[in-house]
Amino acid sequence: MIRLLLVDDQPLIRSGFRALLEIEDDIEVVAEAADGREGVELARTHLPDIALIDIQMPVVDGIEATRRIAADPALSGVHVVILTNYGLDEYVFDALRAGAAGFLVKDIEPEDFLHAIRVAARGDALLAPSITRRLIHRYVTQPRTPPPGAGLDELTTREREAVVLVAQGLSNDEIAGRMVISPHTAKTHVNRAMTKLHARDRAQLVVLAYESGLVVPRL
Protein backbone atom coordinates (compact mmCIF):
# COMPACT_ATOMS: atom_id res chain seq x y z
CA MET A 1 0.00 0.00 0.00
CA ILE A 2 1.34 3.43 -0.98
CA ARG A 3 0.73 5.93 1.82
CA LEU A 4 0.40 9.49 0.55
CA LEU A 5 0.33 12.95 2.14
CA LEU A 6 -1.39 15.80 0.23
CA VAL A 7 -0.03 19.32 0.80
CA ASP A 8 -1.76 22.14 -1.08
CA ASP A 9 -3.31 25.41 0.07
CA GLN A 10 -6.31 25.00 -2.26
CA PRO A 11 -9.02 22.72 -0.77
CA LEU A 12 -10.51 22.06 -4.20
CA ILE A 13 -7.18 20.77 -5.52
CA ARG A 14 -6.73 18.53 -2.49
CA SER A 15 -10.25 17.12 -2.73
CA GLY A 16 -9.80 16.45 -6.45
CA PHE A 17 -6.58 14.52 -5.95
CA ARG A 18 -8.04 12.66 -2.96
CA ALA A 19 -11.09 11.59 -4.96
CA LEU A 20 -8.83 10.28 -7.72
CA LEU A 21 -6.49 8.48 -5.35
CA GLU A 22 -9.02 6.89 -3.01
CA ILE A 23 -10.55 4.70 -5.71
CA GLU A 24 -7.19 2.97 -6.15
CA ASP A 25 -6.67 -0.22 -4.13
CA ASP A 26 -2.95 0.33 -3.63
CA ILE A 27 -2.95 4.02 -2.58
CA GLU A 28 -4.11 5.53 0.71
CA VAL A 29 -4.24 9.27 1.50
CA VAL A 30 -3.14 9.37 5.13
CA ALA A 31 -3.37 13.14 5.72
CA GLU A 32 -3.85 16.59 4.16
CA ALA A 33 -2.15 19.91 4.89
CA ALA A 34 -2.82 23.46 3.72
CA ASP A 35 0.75 24.77 4.01
CA GLY A 36 4.31 23.48 4.08
CA ARG A 37 4.85 23.79 7.83
CA GLU A 38 1.81 21.66 8.56
CA GLY A 39 2.88 19.29 5.81
CA VAL A 40 6.27 18.66 7.41
CA GLU A 41 4.64 18.07 10.79
CA LEU A 42 2.19 15.59 9.30
CA ALA A 43 5.02 13.86 7.44
CA ARG A 44 6.73 13.28 10.78
CA THR A 45 3.49 12.00 12.28
CA HIS A 46 2.39 9.67 9.47
CA LEU A 47 5.69 8.80 7.69
CA PRO A 48 4.07 8.58 4.23
CA ASP A 49 5.74 6.99 1.24
CA ILE A 50 4.89 10.02 -0.91
CA ALA A 51 4.47 13.67 0.03
CA LEU A 52 2.66 15.44 -2.82
CA ILE A 53 3.51 19.10 -2.21
CA ASP A 54 2.39 22.25 -4.00
CA ILE A 55 5.34 24.49 -4.83
CA GLN A 56 3.70 27.81 -3.95
CA MET A 57 1.96 28.00 -0.56
CA PRO A 58 1.64 30.41 2.37
CA VAL A 59 3.56 30.11 5.66
CA VAL A 60 6.14 27.62 4.30
CA ASP A 61 6.39 27.03 0.56
CA GLY A 62 7.01 23.73 -1.20
CA ILE A 63 10.75 24.25 -1.62
CA GLU A 64 11.36 24.90 2.07
CA ALA A 65 9.04 22.03 3.04
CA THR A 66 11.01 19.73 0.74
CA ARG A 67 14.27 20.94 2.24
CA ARG A 68 13.06 20.23 5.78
CA ILE A 69 11.85 16.76 4.87
CA ALA A 70 15.10 15.93 3.07
CA ALA A 71 17.16 17.13 6.04
CA ASP A 72 15.29 15.00 8.59
CA PRO A 73 16.84 11.50 8.95
CA ALA A 74 13.52 10.22 10.29
CA LEU A 75 11.91 11.10 6.95
CA SER A 76 14.49 9.45 4.69
CA GLY A 77 11.81 7.13 3.31
CA VAL A 78 9.52 9.98 2.22
CA HIS A 79 9.62 10.75 -1.52
CA VAL A 80 8.61 14.34 -2.23
CA VAL A 81 6.76 15.00 -5.48
CA ILE A 82 6.29 18.69 -6.28
CA LEU A 83 3.05 20.01 -7.77
CA THR A 84 3.25 22.99 -10.10
CA ASN A 85 0.93 24.84 -12.45
CA TYR A 86 3.47 25.69 -15.09
CA GLY A 87 5.76 22.73 -15.73
CA LEU A 88 9.42 23.62 -15.32
CA ASP A 89 8.85 27.02 -13.73
CA GLU A 90 11.44 29.09 -11.92
CA TYR A 91 11.10 27.12 -8.68
CA VAL A 92 11.33 23.53 -9.85
CA PHE A 93 15.12 23.43 -10.18
CA ASP A 94 15.45 24.65 -6.58
CA ALA A 95 12.94 22.04 -5.45
CA LEU A 96 14.96 19.26 -7.07
CA ARG A 97 18.14 20.58 -5.48
CA ALA A 98 16.31 20.65 -2.13
CA GLY A 99 15.57 16.93 -2.41
CA ALA A 100 12.38 16.45 -4.44
CA ALA A 101 12.09 13.19 -6.36
CA GLY A 102 10.40 14.96 -9.26
CA PHE A 103 7.46 17.10 -10.17
CA LEU A 104 4.03 16.94 -11.73
CA VAL A 105 1.94 19.56 -13.51
CA LYS A 106 -1.53 19.94 -12.00
CA ASP A 107 -3.30 19.44 -15.31
CA ILE A 108 -1.72 16.02 -15.81
CA GLU A 109 -3.98 13.27 -17.15
CA PRO A 110 -5.38 11.04 -14.35
CA GLU A 111 -3.77 7.85 -15.68
CA ASP A 112 -0.39 9.57 -15.96
CA PHE A 113 -0.77 10.99 -12.47
CA LEU A 114 -1.46 7.60 -10.91
CA HIS A 115 1.42 6.04 -12.82
CA ALA A 116 3.73 8.82 -11.61
CA ILE A 117 2.77 8.26 -7.98
CA ARG A 118 3.62 4.56 -8.30
CA VAL A 119 6.92 5.38 -10.02
CA ALA A 120 7.90 7.77 -7.23
CA ALA A 121 6.93 5.23 -4.57
CA ARG A 122 9.42 2.79 -6.12
CA GLY A 123 12.13 5.39 -5.62
CA ASP A 124 12.48 6.33 -9.29
CA ALA A 125 12.74 9.98 -10.30
CA LEU A 126 9.96 11.62 -12.25
CA LEU A 127 12.34 12.99 -14.86
CA ALA A 128 11.68 11.94 -18.43
CA PRO A 129 14.46 12.62 -20.96
CA SER A 130 12.63 15.69 -22.29
CA ILE A 131 12.34 17.10 -18.77
CA THR A 132 15.99 16.31 -18.10
CA ARG A 133 17.01 18.29 -21.18
CA ARG A 134 14.96 21.26 -19.97
CA LEU A 135 16.50 20.92 -16.52
CA ILE A 136 19.96 20.99 -18.09
CA HIS A 137 19.01 24.06 -20.12
CA ARG A 138 17.86 25.73 -16.93
CA TYR A 139 21.20 24.95 -15.33
CA VAL A 140 23.14 26.32 -18.31
CA THR A 141 21.18 29.55 -18.59
CA GLN A 142 21.29 30.23 -14.85
CA PRO A 143 24.69 28.91 -13.75
CA ARG A 144 25.42 28.53 -10.08
CA THR A 145 28.63 28.21 -8.13
CA PRO A 146 29.36 24.47 -8.21
CA PRO A 147 29.84 22.78 -4.83
CA PRO A 148 32.92 20.71 -4.05
CA GLY A 149 32.81 17.37 -5.86
CA ALA A 150 32.85 15.37 -2.64
CA GLY A 151 32.45 11.68 -3.31
CA LEU A 152 33.32 11.78 -7.01
CA ASP A 153 36.75 10.31 -6.38
CA GLU A 154 35.06 7.36 -4.66
CA LEU A 155 33.06 6.39 -7.75
CA THR A 156 34.30 3.51 -9.84
CA THR A 157 34.63 3.95 -13.58
CA ARG A 158 31.41 2.03 -14.15
CA GLU A 159 29.55 4.00 -11.49
CA ARG A 160 30.66 7.25 -13.14
CA GLU A 161 29.45 5.95 -16.48
CA ALA A 162 26.09 5.03 -14.94
CA VAL A 163 25.72 8.50 -13.39
CA VAL A 164 26.40 10.16 -16.74
CA LEU A 165 23.66 8.04 -18.32
CA VAL A 166 21.23 8.85 -15.50
CA ALA A 167 21.95 12.52 -16.14
CA GLN A 168 20.96 11.95 -19.77
CA GLY A 169 17.55 10.73 -18.57
CA LEU A 170 18.05 6.99 -19.19
CA SER A 171 16.21 4.33 -17.19
CA ASN A 172 18.00 1.37 -15.60
CA ASP A 173 17.02 -0.84 -18.52
CA GLU A 174 18.38 1.71 -21.00
CA ILE A 175 21.56 2.11 -18.96
CA ALA A 176 21.98 -1.67 -18.96
CA GLY A 177 21.67 -1.75 -22.74
CA ARG A 178 24.16 1.08 -23.20
CA MET A 179 26.71 -0.43 -20.78
CA VAL A 180 26.05 -4.03 -21.92
CA ILE A 181 25.22 -5.23 -18.42
CA SER A 182 22.12 -6.61 -16.71
CA PRO A 183 19.42 -4.23 -15.42
CA HIS A 184 20.16 -5.47 -11.91
CA THR A 185 23.83 -4.52 -12.26
CA ALA A 186 22.87 -1.14 -13.71
CA LYS A 187 20.61 -0.51 -10.72
CA THR A 188 23.44 -1.53 -8.38
CA HIS A 189 25.84 0.95 -10.01
CA VAL A 190 23.27 3.74 -9.75
CA ASN A 191 22.39 2.95 -6.13
CA ARG A 192 26.04 2.82 -5.08
CA ALA A 193 26.69 6.14 -6.80
CA MET A 194 23.71 7.67 -4.99
CA THR A 195 25.08 6.44 -1.67
CA LYS A 196 28.57 7.76 -2.31
CA LEU A 197 27.30 11.15 -3.51
CA HIS A 198 24.70 11.36 -0.70
CA ALA A 199 21.86 11.74 -3.22
CA ARG A 200 18.38 10.92 -1.96
CA ASP A 201 17.20 9.73 -5.36
CA ARG A 202 17.83 9.84 -9.10
CA ALA A 203 16.58 13.42 -9.40
CA GLN A 204 19.25 14.64 -7.02
CA LEU A 205 21.79 12.46 -8.79
CA VAL A 206 21.05 14.32 -12.03
CA VAL A 207 21.50 17.70 -10.36
CA LEU A 208 24.72 16.59 -8.62
CA ALA A 209 26.13 15.21 -11.87
CA TYR A 210 25.94 18.65 -13.46
CA GLU A 211 26.78 20.75 -10.44
CA SER A 212 29.87 18.65 -9.64
CA GLY A 213 31.20 18.88 -13.18
CA LEU A 214 31.00 15.15 -13.77
CA VAL A 215 28.72 15.94 -16.70
CA VAL A 216 29.29 19.16 -18.65
CA PRO A 217 26.11 20.62 -20.17
CA ARG A 218 26.21 21.59 -23.81
CA LEU A 219 24.07 24.29 -25.33
> Taking strands numbered 1, 2, ... along the chain, how are they ordered across the largest sheet?
2-1-3-4-5
Radius of gyration: 17 Å
The SSE order reads EHEHEHEHEHHHHHH
Spatial gap, N to C terminus: 43 Å
Helix content: 40-55%
Supply database-style keywords:
219 residues; alpha/beta; Rossmann fold; 2 domains; 5-stranded parallel beta sheet; 5 strands; 49% helix; transcription
Task: Walk me through what this model shows.
- The longest helix is centred in the last third of the chain and has 14 residues, at 183-196.
- It is built from 10 helices and 5 strands; from the N terminus they run βαβαβαβαβαααααα.
- It has 219 residues and is α/β, with parallel strands linked by helices.
- The chain has a 5-stranded parallel sheet, with helices on both faces.
- The chain has helices spanning 11-22, 36-46, 62-71, 92-98, 110-121, 129-141, 157-167, 172-179, 183-196, 202-211, and strands at residues 2-7, 27-33, 50-54, 79-84, 102-105.
- It has 2 domains: 2-126, Rossmann fold, CATH 3.40.50.2300; 137-212, Rossmann fold.
Quick overview of this protein structure:
By secondary structure, this protein is an alpha/beta fold.
